[in-house]
Design a protein that fits this description.
The structure holds 2 protein chains of 2 kinds. By secondary structure, chain A is mostly beta strands. In chain A, 0% of the residues lie in helices and 52% in strands. Chain A has strands at residues 3-5, 10-14, 19-21, 24-26, 32-39, 46-52, 60-61, 64-69, 74-79, 88-96, 105-106, 110-115. In chain A, the strands form 3 sheets. In chain A, strands 2, 5, 6, 10, 11 and 12 form a 6-stranded mixed beta sheet that branches. In chain A, a hairpin with a 6-residue loop joins strand 5 and strand 6 (46-52). Chain A is globular, with a radius of gyration of 14 Å. The relative contact order of chain A is 0.34. Chain B is mainly beta. In chain B, a hairpin with a 6-residue loop joins strand 4 (31-37) and strand 5 (44-50). Chain B starts with a strand and ends with a strand. Classes of the chains: A mainly beta, B mainly beta. The A-B interface holds A 33, 35, 37, 42-47, 50, 52, 91, 93, 95, 99-109 and B 31, 33, 35, 37, 41-45, 48, 50, 55-56, 58, 89, 91, 93, 95, 101-108, 110.
Chain lengths: 116, 114
């Protein structure tokens, strides 16, 4: 079974600085998707970015980018120019392409605080 | 922009009572999901639903749980006899058809069992 691990329960960053959140996963599959979701205090789950395993190019969405290392099974999220509104819980998630239902398997989350 | 909606936002119920949590997925989506998040813990998969039947369920999703898509828009999660440990945030999510891999989440229903 696949597992997702986020080893940093909490991270802190100064406003306008850059922070990297770590995620590792374990799978024997070769095709899958990886996602980062943001959960602000409202507890709504918001999709931040996705990465297809077959793509070598790292995904980017404005200030958010990933460092996808398939061999190392690592999928970190980099937030550039951090803003106060980035403060939230961030979850890494895995989705198998061999599973018809397409469920997401989540990591434990990293609580990001942004200092003004 | 279309979004997933859930009602109610907060439900308080007594142990042993039945609850129904409601979701309206994004209108052209075909895959539907329920997840739950106990306070301070990670989000856990409960069940996925496609073509009017369950496609996968987790160990959490026992006989006390059921899902239904009673019409073309609503997707419900029923807990027949609630337990204290069912207290959690319940999220509905939906996904488009084949080739569409992102799941979009609703705002959640906070269930409190007393």
């Amino acid at each position: 079974a696949q597992t997702v691990t986020q080893s940093q329960p909490e991270m802190s960053v100064q406003e306008a600085e850059t922070v990297t959140l770590s995620c590792t996963y374990d799978t024997s599959e070769s095709d899958y998707y990886l996602f980062w979701y943001k959960q602000p205090p409202s507890r709504q789950m918001i999709l931040v970015i996705r990465q297809e395993a077959y793509k070598q190019q790292n995904a980017t969405e404005n200030r958010f980018s990933v460092n996808f290392q398939k061999a190392a099974k690592s999928f970190s999220l980099k937030i550039s120019d951090s803003q106060l509104g980035d403060a939230a819980m961030y979850f890494c998630a895995y989705r198998s392409l061999y599973n018809q239902g397409g469920k997401l398997i989540f990591g434990q989350g990293t609580e990001l605080s942004v200092k003004p | 922009e279309p979004e997933v909606t859930q009602t109610p936002s907060h439900q308080v119920t007594q142990m042993g009572q039945e609850v129904i949590l409601r979701c309206v997925p994004i209108s052209n989506h075909l895959y539907f999901y329920w997840y739950r998040q106990i306070l301070g813990q990670k989000v856990e998969f409960l069940v996925s639903f496609y073509n009017n039947e369950i496609s996968e369920k987790s160990e959490i999703f026992d006989d006390q749980f059921s899902v239904e898509r009673p019409d073309g828009s609503n997707f419900t999660l029923k807990i027949r006899s609630t337990k204290l440990e069912d207290s959690a945030m319940y999220f509905c999510a939906s996904r488009g058809g084949r080739g569409r891999h992102e799941q979009y989440f609703g705002p959640g229903t906070r269930l409190t069992v007393t």
